[in-house]
Amino acid sequence: MDPISDAELVVSARAGDVDAFTVLVERYRLPALRFAYGIAGDEAEDAVQDAFVNTFRKLDTFRPGSAFRPWLFTIVANEARNRRRSMSRRASLELRVREQPQSAGAPADAPAIENEQRRRLVAAVNDLADNHREVVALRFFAGLSESETAEVLSCPLGTAKSRLSRALDILRAALGEEVML
Amino acid sequence: VIDLDLALTDLAEHLDHPASVGWAADLERRLSAPVRAERRLPARVLLVAAAVFAVVAASVVAIAPARHAVADWLGIGAVEIRRSDRPLPASTGRHPVPGATGATPDPRAAARLAAARRAVSFAIVTPSIDSAGALTAIDVDRRVPGGLVALSYPRFTIVEIATDPIQPPPLYKLLAGQTPTQQVTVNGEPGLWIPSIHEIGYSDRKTGFATDTVRRSGPVLLWQHAGVTYRIEGLRSLAAAQAVAASLR
């Protein structure tokens, strides 16, 4: 059976059905958290929670027929940016990766190599300018399409594409020859 | 050789972002709450915001009902303040009490203090008394006009708040019940000593949401000098708090 669509859930949630909205929360919590982490670091959880609360309360302003996901991520982006602006310690904006433990059957050095690659990549992401980091987080951490990314960033599709392309060029340059061009 | 698109997608799966156990339950509580009854704020914001309105609230209790006199005395106007007749809520334990023992010194305290000094409009002072110990945390909130800084030490926290006589801070209420206060003199200025537990709250000027309340422990010594409101929280005796206040340089 197909899952209930965002549009159907929004209709129920607009009528005050918290459970329907909770389904949307479960659906988008993780990508929203990953995206917000890319912007606001350790304050991501607070930003996402505030974003969901504000989204729920603004549902009556949501235009029927429009896409829910970019609308939600626009609110998440605003909350995360506000958090970033008010943060007093730059260090907490530094993204980190979870170390992967050795798994049975894998080559002995596989986790170490993967961990090292991720550390290098996240270090390069940390060095990106805010606008580049944001477009990377939307596209790859949250998994939004190019058109959704443009909508969240309130810019033409071409601008979003060129910004992402530039961000990836910077990452490739930072990572050197290891990256497939 | 790695594919960058795939590597970034893989990275998303391995980001070490925060993931609190109670997040979903907390969100559900917020979604179900009346609009004006909640808004969760991180402990850091609560800490610094609490300092401001606790000053105001305590003053009102001490000098009420002369609200105008209180406003004049603090140089803060149009701040909604009221006393609560209901019991204090149970502590959620989410918001650490300033001055909690066991905090470790911040190795970057000097740099953070220098940054805080650049961020606020007034001259930050620190205790010169040896028993204060080393700084364990420094937090700045620029949303308060002129700035607010919270300096945490192993046994207490000092909060210094720019007090703007024109633009009221977005803060409100409250001392619960019959919380006692004592009018004192601190460094030659009028001040207040709140020796027992009191409740604090915060409101957001932009959204108008009434916000979370937490149960926080007194005692608190607070006073104002030259456009800055000072608050020392965590020391159990008035004499100890006065000694720290007198050593501020």
Most residues in contact, chain pair and counts: A-B, 46 and 41 residues
What is the helical fraction of chain B, as a range of percent? Answer: 25-40%
Helix content of chain A: 55-70%
Helix-strand string of chain A? HHHHHHHHE
pLDDT < 50 stretches of chain A = none
How would you sum up the global shape of chain B? Answer: extended
Spatial strand order of the main sheet of chain B:
2-3-4-10-9-6-5
Beta-strand portion of chain A reads: under 5%
Label the overall shape of chain A. Answer: globular
Description:
The complex is a heterodimer of chains A (181) and B (249). Chain A is mainly α and 181 residues long. Chain A has eight helices and one strand, in the order H-H-H-H-H-H-H-H-E. Chain A starts with 5 loop residues before the first helix and ends with a strand. The mean pLDDT of chain A is 87. In chain B, the strands form two sheets. In chain B, strands 2-3-4-10-9-6-5 form a seven-stranded antiparallel β-sheet, sandwiched between helices. A two-stranded antiparallel sheet of chain B has the order 7-8. At the A-B interface, helix 2, helix 3, helix 5, helix 6 and helix 8 of A face strand 1, helix 1, helix 2, helix 5 and strand 2 of B.
Keyword list:
heterodimer; A: about 180 residues; 8 helices; about 65% helix; about 0% strand; B: about 250 residues; alpha+beta; 7-stranded antiparallel β-sheet; about 30% helix
List strands and helices in order, with pairings.
The complex is a heterodimer of chains A (181) and B (249).
Chain A: H1 6-14, H2 18-40, H3 44-57, H4 68-86, H5 110-126, H6 130-141, H7 146-153, H8 157-175, E1 179-180
Chain B: E1 2-3, H1 4-13, H2 23-32, H3 43-63, H4 67-74, H5 109-119, E2 137-141, E3 148-152, E4 157-162, E5 182-186, E6 189-194, E7 198-203, E8 210-216, E9 220-225, E10 228-233, H6 238-246
Antiparallel strand pairs in B: 2-3, 3-4, 4-10, 5-6, 6-9, 7-8, 9-10
